[in-house]
Design a protein that fits this description.
heterodimer; A: alpha+beta; Immunoglobulin-like; 6-stranded mixed sheet; 3-stranded antiparallel sheet; 1 helix; 9 strands; about 30% helix; B: about 110 residues; mainly beta
Chain lengths: ~160, ~110
């Protein structure tokens, strides 16, 4: 009887220790990965728009809340603008924060576009934020964001 | 590898209308991140990186693409019809190869 109890205690302790170590390793991995990607995201945003700080608003992203297949996630972006010769959306940059290459696409519009809106399909490696930054003809910058949950990632490897 | 691109444009439109144009091209859009399972070597990047749409010779829309765009890239965008004319689409990939398509647009 006594022996059996002792065994049980050891078992549980082993189990707890093992689980703790595994959790620590996972936490460490995701922490470093998160940092690496985040840095790259800020770098690519800087490459696209410089040091300017975009203002939230005007940009809307249409994306599924949950993407079952990260290989093809349909998305649509649109920006509020009259799209006249004097006031139009020049460019919209789309980024996926945690993809190995955070740049997704840059759309270049013209007053002839009529509507600052475009659709395409993107790959998403994991659950993450999709960001769109619009550059207006007057130089203003606007930013919009959407979180997408991804069931199966789509960036190969 | 890539075959004839497909473009969908309304048959006719009124001057001043904003129409949607849909395009699709077959291309594997190799990201440059995948490894060959047999050799373990990285498969080099090979994607369509540029799409340009012109109306009567004037650029109306452009998309610069990165490896995060899915295989067989689909792009839809809008055009405010100024007059009758011809749409001209060009896709360019990393090797410099281009594909093009033309569509006539009639106004009513």
């Amino acid at each position: 009887m006594t022996k059996r109890i002792q065994l049980k205690v050891i078992d549980r302790r082993d189990f707890v220790l093992g689980a703790g170590a595994a959790a620590a390793v996972t936490a460490l991995l995701s922490a470093t990965a998160g940092k690496a990607w985040a840095k790259e995201l800020s770098e690519v945003i800087k490459a696209a728009i410089g040091d300017a700080k975009p203002v939230e608003g005007k940009v809307s992203l249409e994306l599924p809340e949950i993407a079952e297949n990260g290989n093809t996630v349909p998305f649509a972006i649109s920006v509020e603008s009259p799209m006249t010769d004097k006031d139009y959306v020049k460019t919209v940059h789309v980024f996926a924060a945690k993809n190995p290459n955070p740049e997704v696409v840059s759309f270049y519009f013209s007053p002839m576009s009529g509507k600052a809106s475009a659709k395409s399909r993107m790959r998403l490696a994991t659950t993450q934020d999709v960001i769109a930054i619009a550059a207006m003809s007057g130089g203003e910058l606007f930013i919009g964001k959407r979180t997408v949950k991804v069931t199966i990632g789509g960036c190969g490897g | 590898m890539a075959i004839k691109p497909r473009v969908k444009v309304p048959k006719s439109a009124k001057v001043g209308d904003t129409i949607q144009i849909k395009t699709l091209i077959s291309h594997k859009m190799e990201t440059g991140l995948r490894k060959d399972k047999k050799t373990g070597k990285k498969i080099p990047r090979q994607i369509i990186n540029m799409f340009v749409a012109k109306f009567n010779g004037k650029q109306v829309f452009q998309a610069k693409m990165y490896p995060s765009i899915s295989a067989n890239p689909y792009i839809a965008f809008f055009l405010k019809v100024p007059e009758a004319g011809e749409l001209d689409f060009t896709w360019t990939d990393d090797s410099g190869k281009t594909w093009s398509a033309k569509k006539k647009l009639a106004v009513s």
